[in-house]
Design goal:
Elements (H helix, E strand, L loop, with lengths): L2 H23 L8 H23 L4 H13 L1
Helix pairs in contact: 1-2, 1-3, 2-3
């Protein structure tokens, strides 16, 4: 995978995760259930992983793959 392809995939994941995070964190009538809480925790972990890759200025193919797969599973 080229660097441009990896960056495009990470960009897609970042936007998708931020939208999901906004959805889970918005004001709601009922508190998050256990599954939603777990999803929010995983979203935050993936966003942290993306930020770490940005700080390092690189992502390995393995990092791109697991971030993409985990994002798609959410």
């Amino acid at each position: 995978m080229t660097k441009a392809e990896a960056n495009q995939m990470i960009d897609y994941c970042y936007v998708h995760l931020m939208v999901m995070k906004h959805y889970y964190e918005k004001t709601r009538e009922f508190p998050l259930d256990i599954i939603e809480t777990g999803n929010l925790e995983q979203i935050n972990e993936l966003l942290d992983d993306i930020q770490t890759g940005i700080d390092k200025r690189q992502f390995t193919d393995m990092e791109v793959t697991y971030i993409t797969e985990d994002t798609n599973q959410l």
